[in-house]
Design a protein that fits this description.
heterodimer, A: mainly alpha, 9 helices, B: mainly alpha, 6 helices, about 0% strand, globular
């Protein structure tokens, strides 16, 4: 499994892996927001945690269809399915690789982009913490969606239609956690709920995703 | 005699062809009685005026929107565990009906909300969770449409239905955390504490029964259509082989 993780990381970071793409997308979305809502610092600061969360979520979505599609094309998904390691483990490793190449960079980039949106100073730490807790859930849920649509020719659009409703609870608790932190309120409860969603997704969804892959490879 | 007999499509077709006219007739009858009673023979509410009568469409459709998803969850589970085709076809048949019920509930709610709350839409927990439920129906139906092989589609949509149920419930409670609402609490419960007045409640019970019967009739009809379509495809495939 470590070998698989390393392989996925290498594939994602080297040429044509689309590693920087989601980060660049995140940057562009963040830059577009002030053009849409106007440059007043007060307004921007108030909506910044929510915008950054939605932006991170959309950037995460962008790279989901790569998780299995390339492996499916060159046949390595069939090999992985017949390999001695359980398919559930493969799925979990794939999600981890996706998080390391998407979720983690987004988490690190979010506070920097927060400067552009006039994010209140107190909020930087809370935003990073909530993204750190929440993005693994986004990767795991997304991996499940990618597993469902891996057999389809043009699954990309359908993938977002399937995955976005599943993202709603994560987004609600994540944005709420960051917002409460920014306003100096007690932010413990949403952070705990967010961590709970992540833990639950990581525990349950590998099984659902592996089942979906088995169906698709049948 | 067990319920699993109806997993046999032939047996299901026989029984449902006999049951369908009766269920349809009963549904039409109860709906007519309930709606006419509700619309013309109940007094206006002293504060809400005659807009209160929207309740006879709003509440039953909202109830069926949730119950349709619950039914899809059960039939999807049966398909995944016991591989009965009729079961998953019933889930497929129920999805557009459930989605329509969700839309009816949202629209009648908007029409009712405009004069009462002064707004068509508010990000109230109940309204929001219904909108989310609508999105889940949309994804489920889209996945059925996208996958070509019927058995693969059945498996994938069933897995999606199971996972979706968990996340729909999560969203339901997440939005409660997220915003306080305008919407009132439960209008009908066996607990007498919160209850609409009896004069409104009785026709409401009748229309709710009518919506359940209507749902059953539509699901039977659509499941029969799906089974016939499946048979037709098998016949065509056989002809091409010959």
């Amino acid at each position: 499994m470590p070998a698989l993780l390393l392989r996925d990381l290498r594939l994602a970071t080297r040429a044509g892996g689309g590693f920087g793409l989601s980060l660049a997308f995140f940057l562009i979305v963040t830059v577009l927001v002030p053009f849409g809502v106007g440059p007043e610092g007060g307004t921007l600061g108030r909506i910044a945690p929510g915008i950054l969360w939605v932006g991170a979520l959309l950037s995460c979505l962008l790279s989901l269809d790569r998780i299995f599609a390339l492996d499916r094309e060159d046949g390595s998904l069939d090999l992985l399915a017949t390999a001695p390691i359980p398919l559930e483990g493969v799925v979990a490793v794939k999600a981890a690789a996706h998080w390391l190449t998407t979720g983690l960079p987004l988490t690190l980039a979010a506070p920097v982009l927060g400067v552009l949106l006039n994010l209140p100073e107190a909020a930087f730490g809370w935003l990073a913490l909530s993204l750190m807790l929440g993005t693994p859930a986004l990767s795991m849920i997304g991996t499940f969606g990618a597993a469902l649509t891996v057999g389809l020719k043009r699954g990309g659009l359908l993938l977002s239609l399937l995955v976005l409703p599943l993202y709603i609870p994560t987004l609600i608790f994540g944005a709420e956690a960051a917002k409460r932190g920014a306003e100096g309120l007690a932010a413990g409860t949403p952070h705990l709920m967010l961590a709970g969603i992540t833990a639950g997704s990581v525990a349950i969804l590998p099984f659902a995703a592996a089942a979906a892959i088995r169906v698709n490879l049948r | 005699m067990s319920i699993w007999e109806y997993a046999n499509p032939k047996k299901f077709m026989q029984t449902s062809s006999w049951a369908l006219p009766w269920v349809t007739g009963l549904a039409v009858l109860t709906l007519l009685v309930g709606l006419v009673w509700g619309f013309f023979f109940t007094p206006d509410d002293f504060r809400q005026g005659s807009t209160v009568k929207i309740i006879y469409v709003h509440v039953p459709s909202a109830m069926m929107a949730i119950n349709a998803w619950a039914m899809m969850l059960v039939t999807s589970l049966i398909w995944l565990i016991r591989r009965h085709h009729v079961s998953v076809l019933a889930a497929k048949a129920a999805a557009p009906i459930g989605m329509t019920m969700t839309l009816i509930a949202l629209f009648t709610g908007a029409i009712w909300g405009q004069p009462m709350w002064g707004t068509w839409w508010a990000w109230d927990p109940r309204l929001t969770s219904f909108l989310i439920l609508f999105l889940f129906y949309l994804g489920y139906i889209a996945l059925w449409e996208a996958v070509e092989d019927p058995d693969t589609a059945a498996d994938l949509t069933s897995v999606l239905c199971l996972v979706g149920s968990v996340f729909a419930l999560l969203s339901r409670y997440a939005v409660l955390f997220w915003n306080q609402g305008l919407h009132q609490g439960a209008s009908l419960s066996l607990d007498k504490e919160e209850h609409v007045a009896d004069v409104f409640a009785w026709p409401l019970w009748v229309t709710m029964a009518g919506f359940v019967l209507l749902f059953v009739a539509l699901v039977l009809l659509r499941t029969r259509t799906e089974i016939r379509a499946r048979r037709l495809r098998a016949l065509e495939a056989r002809e091409r082989m010959a």
